[in-house]
Design goal:
five-stranded mixed sheet, mainly beta, 51 strands
Length: 587
């Protein structure tokens, strides 16, 4: 399937430069789904079931928070379960009112960054994970860690299976139950529709939570109530492991949408959506806004859908100090916890209920309401408690974001030029969504020049750009120099360290890459190299140095890797003359 590219324009000079840049995010950021999605029938679309709950009046809210009680089944003594890695998303409902095919449910995350699966099992004393190898080789491995880590490359893999054990008892869990699930490294290619990045799992069913008092419906918890005590509803999205981009679609700017199960309002009624930056929870487990990132409005006349299929309330063209670019090219870079607030339903003539989902777990409290405490202060608060077990059944709202994870991954993070006379080296850059030609070059040493060549397949960008760096001769008065080449694309920054000279002799040594090898075997990295190389530096895939080792003089060294997680690593071999060569290997 052809990759849809984000078209960016950049004018760059050779060494000193100016850039006139337009980020055009008009191409749709969507999931690549191999199956034909089944449209939700009127019966399935209305899986939003009424749930009888008791709601403590907003006027009586205590400082420690309110309680909403819903009766649910009791947990088993031994329960295996896990959460997606930090900052990963579920795929939510699409704009065309389709659900993703259940057999192909996916989660979205950043590739080339170590991610940790979060164990939420109950009553277990030991664990065993069966995990597909992050390299995409098709192999699987097991881990007895409570919270194992992996580093994924940009493709799709089966999700792990967890066995939680206590004495002779075992309980198994795989996200999504019996279906085959996948983790997507980066943003998969387009299939023509936009699927929202969400923190609810649509397969569990969506609910419209009624506010009941003495058996009489008084409105909806996450929507309009007859007493109008709820000013707004909010949904929490946790801080990502690395930043992501909120972007637009269909010629709109930044784009977020919500699905409603109940809606009617005069056509000129205005609804507002606000994206807040938030910190960590306070002592009362509440979040507070640290500032507004962006906001947008939607008129009731712009809401589409019906009672059978659900209602789509779409917000686009967000404005605010954090919005970068303009028009269809506007975007937001998100690297913090955020809270998305929806208000405007607390008015006469409006009937409103946003789809919500309760999951019987002590994790992921995502849905909030804004209401007054007993002192009359507006607060964000939540809580749905399981009346039988006392555990909180956390809730998420059907709010979907158009999210893009971008990445720039150099073949090696360091380029050394050992010769005083300079020279040229070419490396490959794996990149998502746009070629390096479209990136902004933020920093370039004045003693190098560079050129770029996109690798294409069938006329389309293949996700690889060849970067050639040419170093000028080293001045006589200098023994060496080092500097950074920095490139930027919304959501990603790539830094390549460039060095020249130091203790390099004037002899023009030629180093053959075939002499250097790093192979993962038997729990170790087996290294081979020319005998005049004395040390090796180990780097993570993000370019961060992990360790330095001395090399044996016979050209073969074994490095233990039990403390290293699965993923891609870089080995930079350095000779006694200061010449260096870098190779990569996958554990």
């Amino acid at each position: 399937m052809k990759r849809k590219l984000l078209s960016l324009m950049l004018v760059v000079g050779s060494v000193s430069y100016t850039s006139a840049q337009v980020f055009d995010f008009n191409s749709q950021n969507v999931a690549n789904v191999a199956d034909e999605d089944s449209k939700v029938s009127s019966e399935e679309a209305s899986k939003t079931k009424s749930a009888a709950v008791s709601f403590q009046a907003a006027a009586d809210f205590q400082a420690q928070g309110k309680k909403i009680v819903q009766t649910r089944a009791t947990n088993a003594t031994l329960k295996a379960s896990y959460m997606r890695p930090q900052g990963f998303f579920y795929y939510g409902r699409s704009l065309s009112n389709h659900y993703l095919g259940k057999e192909y449910s996916r989660i979205l995350g950043y590739p080339y960054v170590e991610t940790q699966w979060r164990n939420t099992s109950e009553g277990a004393t030991a664990f065993q994970w069966t995990m597909p190898h992050a390299s995409g080789s098709g192999d699987v491995y097991t881990s007895t860690s409570e919270n194992p880590s992996a580093t994924y490359v940009p493709t799709l893999y089966n999700l792990p299976t967890l066995e939680a054990k206590k004495d002779d008892a075992s309980n198994y869990y795989k996200w999504g139950g019996a279906y085959s699930k996948f983790v997507g490294g980066g943003t998969p290619a387009a299939d023509g529709r936009i699927y929202g990045a969400a923190n609810y799992d649509y397969r569990e069913g969506m609910w419209k939570l009624d506010y009941m008092e003495d058996g009489v419906k008084k409105g909806y918890i996450y929507g309009k109530r007859e007493d109008k005590k709820v000013e707004s509803v909010l949904n929490f999205f946790e801080k990502p492991a690395t930043k992501y981009v909120l972007l637009g679609g269909n010629n709109n700017g930044v784009w977020v949408w919500a699905w409603l199960s109940v809606f009617s309002a005069p056509g000129d009624t205005e609804f507002k959506m606000t994206i807040h930056k938030v910190g960590e929870r306070d002592d009362y487990e509440r979040y507070h806004s640290l500032g507004v990132l962006a906001e947008a409005t939607c008129k009731a006349s712009e809401v589409t859908g019906n009672a059978e299929s659900g209602y789509l309330m779409s917000f686009s063209n967000f404005t605010g100090a954090a919005v970068m670019g303009s028009g269809a090219g506007a975007y937001l870079e998100i690297e913090d916890n955020i809270m998305i607030e929806l208000e405007g339903f607390n008015k006469d003539g409006v009937d409103f209920c946003i789809d919500a989902q309760t999951v019987n777990t002590t994790t992921e409290a995502n849905a909030y309401i804004k209401a007054k405490d007993k002192e009359g202060n507006w607060i964000w608060d939540y809580y749905i408690d399981d009346e039988q077990t006392g555990s909180q059944a956390k809730t998420a709202l059907s709010i979907n974001m158009n999210v893009l994870y971008t990445y720039m991954h150099p073949e090696k993070p360091v380029i050394d030029f050992p010769l005083r006379s300079g020279g040229s080296q070419t490396i490959e850059i794996s990149a998502s969504n746009a070629s390096l030609n479209n990136w902004e070059i933020k920093s370039i040493p004045d003693w190098i020049t560079y050129s770029l060549e996109d690798v294409k397949s069938g006329g389309d960008y293949a996700g690889i750009t060849k970067l050639t760096i040419t170093a000028l001769p080293l001045p006589d008065e200098k023994n060496g120099r080092h500097d950074d080449f920095v490139a930027y694309f919304p959501g990603s920054t790539m830094t390549i360290r460039i060095g020249q000279g130091d203790e390099v002799s004037g002899i023009e040594d030629e180093v053959l890459m075939s002499e250097f090898k790093a192979v993962y075997k038997g729990g170790n990295f087996e290294l081979s190299y020319p005998t005049d190389y004395t040390s090796v530096y180990l780097y993570g895939v993000n370019g961060q140095q992990i360790a330095k080792y001395s090399l044996t003089g016979d050209g073969v060294t074994s490095i233990p890797s039990e403390d290293l997680n699965g993923g891609l690593y870089m080995f930079r071999f350095v000779s006694g003359k200061g010449i260096s060569t870098t190779v990569k290997a996958m554990k």
